[in-house]
């Protein structure tokens, strides 16, 4: 994992077309803005985990099966 320090209004570029900007730092919360092409799906971490969990449940696969398939696809 790459760890960077940024101040308010400073940004990080990911590739040519994704920009993550620190908008505001207030106490222990940081507001960020993400600019990305329309085809890039962006989720909060906890929401992504819930989506993944629900997809696994609805597929009838065990978590181990899903992990195994995911590793093979990479």
Structure overview:
By secondary structure, the protein is α+β, with helices and mostly antiparallel strands. It has one domain. It has two helices and three strands; from the N terminus they run βββαα. The protein has helices spanning 45-59, 63-73, and strands at residues 11-14, 18-26, 29-35. The chain has a three-stranded antiparallel beta sheet with strand order 1-2-3, with no helix packed on it. The relative contact order is 0.10.
Beta-strand portion reads 25-35%
* Total separate domains: 1
What radius of gyration results from the CA coordinates? 17 Å
**Total E-strand runs:** 3
| Lateral strand order in the biggest sheet | 1-2-3
Low-confidence stretches: none
Mean pLDDT: 90
Largest sheet: 3 strands, antiparallel
Q: What helical percentage do the residues reach?
A: 25-40%
What distance separates the N and C termini? 19 Å
Strand-pairing-aware structural class: alpha+beta
Number of helices: 2
Shape annotation:
elongated
Task: Outline the secondary-structure elements.
Blueprint: E1 11-14, E2 18-26, E3 29-35, H1 45-59, H2 63-73
Antiparallel strand pairs: 1-2, 2-3
Question: What tags apply to this protein structure?
Answer:
74 residues, alpha+beta, three-stranded antiparallel sheet, 27% strand
Short description:
By secondary structure, this protein is of the alpha+beta class.
